Amino acid sequence: MKYEAAKLKDISKVLGLSVSTISRALNDSYEISEKTKKLVREYAEKINYRPNPVAVSLREKRSRSIGVIIAEIANSFFSQMINGVESVAHAKGYNVIITQSLESYERELSNLEFLASRSVDGCLISVSTETKNFDHITRLHKRGFPFVCFDRIIDDIKTHKVSIDNFKGAYDATKELVKSGFKRIAMLGNAEHLSITQERLSGYKAALADAGLVFDESLIRYCLHGGMIYGEVEQAMNELMSLRKKPDTFFAASDKLTTNFVRYCKAKKISIPNKLGLVGFSNLDLTDLLTPALSVIRQPAFEMGEAAAELLIKLIEAKRPPADFENMVLPPELLIRGSSERKK
């Protein structure tokens, strides 16, 4: 049986009032008596009537909905970020439509076309690892479609941007490993072209230089899908562990790279930190419960979501195009635990 939402004409038929009277009563028009308004509202509530969102959006010329394009909902960073987005959107009367690219350019393109065709008022986007061409975004942006970039930033688009201090996060992680006495610090990175990868690589290099350690290109491996595909991490780890001068510790530059590094070590019976140390980016709430507890760089994901949603709604509701855009950079937090403690 096909579900049919209650309509104004259903209320009109039962109460013997015109559709226009019903509509004005529900919109609290001064032309309608309080007695009639009460009658209409009570019956509308009884049959669970809700205004048609398409009709409302046509009347108001906006849908009061925002779209979100992320890599993967199962990623703890993105799920926490969505919580931040929805907390702000709900408070301001907006609905949120969430899509995931699963690190696919084609899927990101399809998601964006879907959201734009459904007339969302604007979109938050963190581009996929496969995305190198941004034409699908710039075309809509040039037509005035509001965008806010978060996490993975697109430099060429003039809009609000929300990220963390990736340089500092990587610098602090690498510095902690150096402080613990590790010398051969390998880095597992996301796709090489991404803004977050480049910034985290720069922080890693700077920490090595400040510690008087020589940067070794052979200790760097990039995983195109950012650890989402375990086989990519396994291949990168196999290559690094086959080096004549093996690494003694790792900096894992994303959530999924961190968890899959741990999975690899468990499968290969490699003890952390007795054989390999680790500091990784991770927003998982369970990292302190593992054995050993993981030293991690934690991103303020919820706050990033809040900030991105605030900026997007500000763009949507602006009476005229903004002259300036915010580039908001939030601080990460280093949590030092057992995985980065070198055993003597």
TrEMBL record:
Keywords associated with the record: DNA-binding, Transcription, Transcription regulation
CDD domains hit by this protein: HTH_LacI (cd01392), PBP1_LacI_sugar_binding-like (cd06267)
InterPro entries named in the record: HTH_LacI, Lambda_DNA-bd_dom_sf, Peripla_BP/Lac1_sug-bd_dom, Peripla_BP_I
Limits of the HTH lacI-type domain: 6-60
Classification via PROSITE patterns: HTH_LACI_2
Database matches in Pfam families: LacI, Peripla_BP_1
Record flagged with keyword Protein transport: no
GO function term, MF aspect, one: transcription cis-regulatory region binding
UniProt superkingdom: Bacteria
Name of protein: Transcriptional regulator, LacI family
